[in-house]
Structure formats: structure tokens, C-alpha cells
From TrEMBL:
Substrate binds at R54, G55, A56, R96, Q205, N256, K257. This is Methylthioribose-1-phosphate isomerase. GO terms for biological process: L-methionine salvage from methylthioadenosine. It comes from Stutzerimonas nosocomialis. Pathway: Amino-acid biosynthesis; L-methionine biosynthesis via salvage pathway; L-methionine from S-methyl-5-thio-alpha-D-ribose 1-phosphate: step 1/6.
Amino acid sequence: MRERLLAAEKVKAIEWREGALQLLDQRVLPLQSVWRRYGDAPAVADAIREMVVRGAPAIGIAAAYGVVLSARVRLAEGGDWRAALEADFQVLADSRPTAVNLFWALNRMRDRLGRLKPEDDVVAALEAVAVSIHQSDREANLTMAQLGAELIRKNQGNPQNLLTHCNTGALATGGFGTALGVIRAAHLEGMVERVYADETRPWLQGSRLTAWELAGEGIPVSLNADSAAAHLMKTRGITWVIVGADRITANGDVANKIGTYQLAVTAMHHGVRFMVVAPSSTIDMSLESGEDIPIEERPGHELLEVNGQRFAADVEAVNPVFDVTPADLIDVIVTEKGIVERPDAAKMAALMSRSRLH
Ligand code: MRU
């Protein structure tokens, strides 16, 4: 399966080339394919905030490369480069609040900085960590794809109808995707009849990104309004809702793209299984429950306008872009360390004490 997934890989959104970060601009996909080059940390922070790069693991990877760029720039400037680097850490940390992968990656980079020896090449040492964060995310996705596909195979006769939300694919990660990685693997094994992709208002990650990734690989996909999900579960024989995560707390609560919570409630009502796929870098054991997760609110114009064109009445918009699904609505969390069925605090602690499977 690993080789078949590697062979099927079509999309990349993050490249570290010639000492610079290259990002495929996700704001203009799928109509345009524009790569942008970043040479310093504040520019990378802007790219994260403005959603040039998005998706929890991808944000963490971009931030790690942002630290490498910062080290190079601040060392070249001379003076107190460590203080200037620390300020850049803060700029990167302030870019988006909910996906813990960002802070996890920054902590890994800070940890390496703390272990530098006088003879070390600072930039090379940090670069090695950033590259390894990037590579290990790809590897984690390959492992999770196989574990998740196995669960789908065990559940019911094949092929099956699956529903997903937001974009959790190659664009959102270091490669292959989390929930979309599972869907890809399931498709390669002939287990997918059709994928229903929620359009994912207001930013339209589903219609612009997920539908594009799946259609590009010949995976049967239909786009639906977010509000059609319950009806589709009732009428289209959907067996699984499969989503990613931005932060999973110690009790198994899951923050993910706004609309995920209502999908979980609806799935339980219809007897549809609910799978969350996320690497362990998305698990935040320092937070007891989802109540503690900072939920990003983005500007109202994302809701009130399409392509900069106002269409809504002249009212205020409320635009929380993530929500929290309580652990008791989740059938299974898939990570590269293994799976957790019916998550709770004890099972999450046991999972996190394991090393990765492959
Ligand atoms: O606002 P976004 O597009 O960054 O939100 C992304 C999501 O909510 C994804 O579902 C999540 O990050 C998992 S991506 C592998």
C-alpha cells in the first residue's frame, strides 16, 4: 500500500528549495496554480494568517521552515541574533491560534536551539529539524492511511460511501493527507463507491481543494452544501464520516473545521461511524478538554463576501472557524501511533506513551 500511495502522489503544497520556502497559494486554487517564495519569518507568518498555507500539519511545517529562515536572516544582521530569533518565534506563534501543530513545531525548533553546541552550524542544525518535521509528517500520513483503510474494510461490505469535511489532503499536510490519506488508501483498495465532500463554508476548502485533489486522482467525488450532510446520511448509505483535526485534547475531544461537531451529532443519529485522522503532533496532552482550546474567529468579510463581492445584508457576521466535537461522539481516532476506539483520557494517555508504529 505504501508504494501504491507513493506512486499515486500528485499534489505538493510545500517545498524547501535552495534555502527558501515555496508555498502553493491555496487561496487561488483550483483556478490558478501559483507558487510563492518566502525568505523570512514574518512573511511566513503572514502566509499562514492569510491562508496561503493552511491545514494543521502544513502550518506547523511552514512555521518550522520559518524559523530556519529567521535564523539565517538574524545571524546575517549581526547583533543579538538570539533575541531577534525569539521575536520571530512569537510572530510565527501569533499567526493562527487553534492548530496545535504550529506550537508543537515551534517547540521542536526551540528545543534544538537550546541544545546547540558552540561548534554547530545554527542554520544547518535548524534546517535538519524542519526537514525531519516535514518528512515525518508524510510518513505518519502513510501509516494512518493504512490503519484507517483497514477500519473501513472491517466495517461493512465494499465499496462504501464516505463523507468528509474541509481539506485534509496533500495540501493540508506534508504529503498524502490525514483523513484524505485514508480515503486515498481505501480507494486504491476498491473500497470507495463515492466521496461526499462538504463544501466547507465560508472558506470553501471542500469545494476548492478537496474536490480538486480527489477528482485529480480519479476518485469519485460529489460536492454538497454543508447543510445537506444529514439528508445525505439518511438517503445515500454513507457508512463513515472521516475528518482531520486541529487539536485533540487529553480526554479525546477534537477541534476541527467549523461544522465538524454538527456532523458528529448527525452521524450518531444515523448510525454512521465517525473517524478522526490526525498525527500525534495534533494531540495536546497539556489541555484537559476541548473547553480549553482557543477557537479562532476570522473576519466577518469571509462570510459576507464572495471574491471580494458583498452579497449579504448589511449585518454583523460571526465567524468562528473551528468547533469542538466531544470525545463521546467519536468512534475512532487514527494516529501514526495506532488507533483509539471510543476515546477517553485513559486511552489517550496510553496512546501517547507508545512510540510510532513504523
Ligand atoms: O482553516 P484551515 O483550512 O487551516 O482548517 C483546516 C482544518 O480544519 C483541517 O480539517 C485540519 O487542519 C486537519 S488537516 C490535515
